[in-house]
Amino acid sequence: MSRVFNTMGSCLAEDHYMLPPGRRLSQLQDLIDGKTFFVIHAPRQTGKTTLLRNFSRELTDNGAFAAITVSMESFTDPQVQVSLPQMLARIQEVAGQQLPDELCPPGVDPASRPTQAGLTGLLSDWSRKIDRPLVVFFDEIDSLPGPVLLSVLRQLRDGYTSRPAPFPQSVALVGLKDVRDYKAQARPGAEPLGTSSPFNIKSRSLSLRNFTAAEVAELLSQHTVETGQEFAPDAVEQIFNQSGGQPWLVNALARQLVTDYDALVQDRSVTVTKEDVLAAREILIERRDTHLDSLVARLNEDRVRRVIEPILTGETSLDPTYNDDFSHVLDLGLVARHEGVHKIANAIYTEIITRVLNFQVQTHIATNPAWFVAGDGTLDMMKLIEGFIEFWRGNGEILLKGLAYQEAAPHLVFMAWLQRIVNAGGQIHREYAVGTKRVDLVVEFGGRSDVIELKRTHVYKALPDGLAQVSSYAKRLGRDRGYLVLFDVKTTTPIEERGKVETVEEQGVNVVILRV
């Protein structure tokens, strides 16, 4: 039986298509050989656990180390005297599962160890007992409650500073957050730690990157080799473009395409096409599996809103907390930094975030999308604009007040309207990033592409910049017409009187300007 693309738990080479686990963190072996303690942080569902479990198994099988990966996720009681004995028992249990008997820790009752030094004692006794250096990966470390995390960090530091007395050669703390965030989590109230960092012994802080385009192609090719089913080159490219190489999304798209029980292309003699990938993308967006839902739940956090909102408007954030907030949202995996530009991490997240934020608006739209389709099957863009003006005049004021993302509210209302119409048989490609002063929407419908630019009029040079951007983008699409929507959020004109439309020629392109 052939392997499958996995989206549930860590990957196993015998069951799942997967890339060599250590490739995306090639420094691991050097850090372990150097006897260092270090941090690995990356967003959820990027393959951390898969990498660590496979790597720790390799370290042990090679005969040079005794290595385990143990999850801290289940220890939720904030009382150290409750959680620590449970943790020690779990470490002993996991060691029994992952290691041969001669490499397991001594069978000491965890409850007999002193609470504030039990972890240090277990790791010291274990290191003394076996004939190999010990390596421990503490997975999901940042899920520990503050007091428990503080105790663990202190004990690891005490053991580290006592070397060359017996203690693990290397320890890695693995989780969602970088070590810079542990300080606030581990120090509730004014409890002193005695150091500026709760893990100041760490040598490095590593992050796990996404798949490259070549790695996505390599992963998909494993399916082709085993089954004979091919992915068209533009399908492979589209999987990377939609996912940004995010490992869970890559596997989720591929699974929906070829290995799920309701896969779109189950016939192994049929090549997977770009159109199939876009159909799978829509299924993922509509279904919103647990991983995607957990990210969506973060949108209501103030720290997340302060980062996502300026990305949606394309405007630079002046909030003094922005840099720290961005680092937090970057660790969540919702955003990315590319060539100095801050943007939503990938096309699928972009679409989900937009739809979630304007869902309330869409429930108010009862319009029949078929009304806006011309006789040749393309969108009648002028009818679409006129329909939006009517919708805006009747509903805009109420909807704007009800949206949590107030700065981006006009953009979200328009995108909800556009989504309702285009859902009848087209696609919207969204391009926006903080500081770019642009929000580009490309609508594909009936074989034609149209560009729409959204701007708020208070932005410096909104009109001339918007005209230049629309005309330039329209030319790239081979179009002699484009659309610029200007939102005047400071006007005193009643909303029912807004909706002026005019056409301006800019560099050979007719730009239709809508002012609302």
Your description of this structure?
The chain is of the alpha/beta class and 516 residues long. It has helices at 28-33, 48-61, 80-98, 118-129, 146-161, 182-186, 213-227, 233-243, 247-259, 274-287, 290-296, 302-313, 322-332, 347-357, 359-362, 381-402, 409-422, 462-476, and strands at 37-41, 66-71, 134-139, 170-175, 202-207, 335-338, 341-344, 427-432, 439-445, 448-456, 481-487, 500-506, 509-515. The strands form three sheets. It has a six-stranded mixed sheet with strand order 8-9-10-11-13-12, with helices on both faces.
The number of helical elements comes to 18
* Count of domain modules: 3
Provide mean pLDDT, rounded: 89
Bin the strand percentage.
15-25%
For the CA atoms, what is the radius of gyration? 27 Å
Which structural class do the helices and strands define? alpha/beta
What's the structural blueprint in terms of helices and strands?
Blueprint: H1 28-33, E1 37-41, H2 48-61, E2 66-71, H3 80-98, H4 118-129, E3 134-139, H5 146-161, E4 170-175, H6 182-186, E5 202-207, H7 213-227, H8 233-243, H9 247-259, H10 274-287, H11 290-296, H12 302-313, H13 322-332, E6 335-338, E7 341-344, H14 347-357, H15 359-362, H16 381-402, H17 409-422, E8 427-432, E9 439-445, E10 448-456, H18 462-476, E11 481-487, E12 500-506, E13 509-515
Parallel strand pairs: 1-4, 1-5, 2-3, 3-4, 10-11, 11-13
Antiparallel strand pairs: 6-7, 8-9, 9-10, 12-13
Helix pairs in contact: 4-5, 7-8, 8-9, 8-10, 9-10, 12-13, 16-17
